[in-house]
Amino acid sequence: METSEKLKALRQQMKKKDINAYIIPHSDPHISEYIPDYWKMRIWASGFNGSAGTLVVTMENAALWTDSRYFLQAEQQLEGSGIELCKMGLPETPDIPTWLSMNLRKGSVIGFDGLVFSLNSARSYIDGFKKNGFSCNPNIDIVSKLWDDRPDLPNDKVFAHELEFAKISIAEKLGAIRKSLLVRDATAYLMCALDEICWTFNIRGSDISFNPVVLSYAIVDDDTATLFIDRSKVDSTLLEYLQSEGVDVKDYGKVFKYLSKLTKKDTVIIDPAKTNFQIHSQIPEKVKVIETLGLATEIKARKYPAEVDGIRTAMVQDGVAMVEFLYWLESNVGKREITELSVGEKILEFRSKRKHFVSESFGSIVGYKEHGAIVHYSATPETSSKIEKDGFLLVDSGGQYLNGTTDITRTVHLSKPTKDEKFDYTLVLKGMIRLAMAKFPVGTRGSQLDTLARMALWSNNINYGHGTGHGVGYFLNVHEGPQQIRPDNHLPIEVGMLMSNEPGLYRAGKHGIRIENLIVCVDDETNDFGRFLKFETLTLCPIDTKAIDVDMLWSDEREWLNNYHSMVYERLSAHLDAEHKEWLKEKTKPI
User: Which residues, in sequence order, are CB contacts of 383 under 8 Å at separation 6+?
Assistant: First the structure.
């Protein structure tokens, strides 16, 4: 069906269910950022395939909310669909309750499927609707009745993340969670977030593209740990391993019944941002519930030293793959046909040869010239540009290794950059370097550090709409929290937190520039003024110097770049053949 036909079918079902509006998020029962194909209901209904966005349908209108990463993409994909684009973050854009109040009469009924809404989100909507005189049906699934060719739920086998790579045992992780339970005077902890569960139980899967997770729930109490998972995915060897570690394995759907049997003696901890509305409704009212950040998230956000060591090793492998790719690109552009799609395939080819590589950590973003200005651009056979020996090429990619997750962006110029192109490129580079060089006292927040990456751009009345840095998992999700470096994240950055450092500049119709490394927070020194922290840059890959206006760099910025390139050469050169080694030596020479 075309989008217009799907909207018509949705409205027919809405009429049968006596609802006046229906909300479809991009979500699953675990409130994942990236989701299995089975749960991509919003993509099916709207035709917009970005990883963030919410569709709202009334009997007469439809609108889709998404953030600045997807404004250009959404405009293109929604054209002619009958769906209005609402650009989140802009002052003139109403939120969903306000938009509904502009398009519905008081007394209208709004429906959504509480299985794919977080408790926080559902409450916010329900409260907003009530203020506007609407009622709500939070447990209604309309899409399932209409989606005839809906993909099956994933059923690939789960595998153990061996201790050689996981570094920290299940017992040690459960011990840390139980310590947190004790501190909070709680008896049990409900885990719904897939990255939390896979990290805690040292398991990995392939239920979601690029994120090595498996659909599951878990409950950890004073002396037991129960994993709720599709038993057909767990072979006898893994089952024995989990049981030997004190883990009880039950069927995925039995978590609802388990929760319904809790008593008033129980005190359960949940993360309302990661617990779906429907599963929360199964907890009896007599049970005390403590709502807080996920205990496992709080622990794993601060990487153990052994995990950081694993990531450093993975970065060598990833750096070699990137050097091989960049050498290939430079050697072949203008001599053979290269497209945005073939670039992504080539990066995967080079990574696939590296030790302990498992998969990409997200679909590569390869944007040539004006496509680079679409922040989360995804090339298709219809849109994939041929890459010539001219202009900027932005390549954002990453890998999943048994000992770490990588995420790197390099923007390279394929000919002779203009003065304006050098200006833009150097502003972005300055921002990346200023953040990499930061030293700051304990308690400094991500929102404060964000300013460092933007200052050179701001000084020229330029900005970018995405965050500067996101948390990264350990052979897990490429986006993990709670730490972020962005204007609206006010959590302190702590030792062990792994993040991206990726300022950018985007000129619609011209080019996009982003330079990204992964950084980890480490101790600097403690003195009379307190304890100070800094960042260690982990990513190992040369930064294109062709487009740098050296006169725009401060002396300490040039020194940082030269030292970084010296480190890149030192750590990668031993793993390269003579030809690539010589190329890397040239690319990392001091400026």
Answer: 340, 371
CATH 2.40.30.170 for domain 3-146? no
Q: Which CATH superfamily is domain 305-582 in?
A: Creatinase/methionine aminopeptidase superfamily (3.90.230.10)
Q: Does domain 159-300 have CATH number 3.40.350.10?
A: yes
- On the 0-12 / 13-18 / 19+ scale of CB atoms within 10 A, 297 is buried
pLDDT digits (tens, 9 = 90+) for 349-404: 999 999 999 999 999 999 999 999 988 788 889 889 999 999 999 999 999 999 99
d(CA 279, CA 297) in angstroms, rounded, equals: 19
pLDDT digits (tens, 9 = 90+) for 68-118: 878 888 998 999 999 999 999 899 999 999 999 999 999 999 999 999 999
Tell me the mean pLDDT in the region 319-341: 97
Question: For residue 402, which of 160, 229, 181, 565 has the smallest C-alpha distance?
Answer: 160
Calculate the CA 525 to chain-centre distance. 31
Chain mean position to CA 276: 19
CA 19, 25, 28 angle in degrees (round to 5)?
Answer: 115
Using an 8 Å Cβ cutoff, are 405 and 475 in contact? yes
The domain spans of the chain are 3-146, 159-300, 305-582
Please check whether residue 507 is in contact with residue 462, taking contact to mean a CB–CB distance below 8 angstroms: no
| Residue 72 confidence (pLDDT) | 82
Q: What is the DSSP string of 50-86?
A: -SS-EEEEESS-EEEEE-GGGHHHHHHHHTTTT-EEE
Average pLDDT estimate for 54-59: 96
Cα–Cα distance measured from residue 28 to residue 259, given in angstroms and rounded to the nearest whole number:
20
Q: What is the mean pLDDT of residues 31-51?
A: 93
Assign 165 a pLDDT band (cuts: 50, 70, 90). very high
With contact defined as beta carbons under 8 Å apart, do 409 and 466 qualify?
no
Count of CB atoms within 10 A of residue 526's CB?
A: 10
What mean pLDDT do residues 450-459 have?
A: 98
Q: Judging by beta carbons within 10 Å of its beta carbon (0-12, 13-18, 19+), is residue 451 exposed, middle or buried? A: middle
Q: Is the pLDDT of residue 243 over 80?
A: yes
Q: Are 141 and 203 contacting, i.e. CB atoms less than 8 angstroms apart? A: no
pLDDT value, residue 325: 98
Global pTM reads 0.92
Amino acid residing at 76: Q
Same fold, 3-146 and 305-582: no
Both tokens assigned to 201:
């139980």
Exposure string of 24-44, with b = 16+ CB inside 10 Å and e = fewer, is bbbbbbbbbbbbbebbbbbbb
What is the 8-class DSSP label of residue 39? G
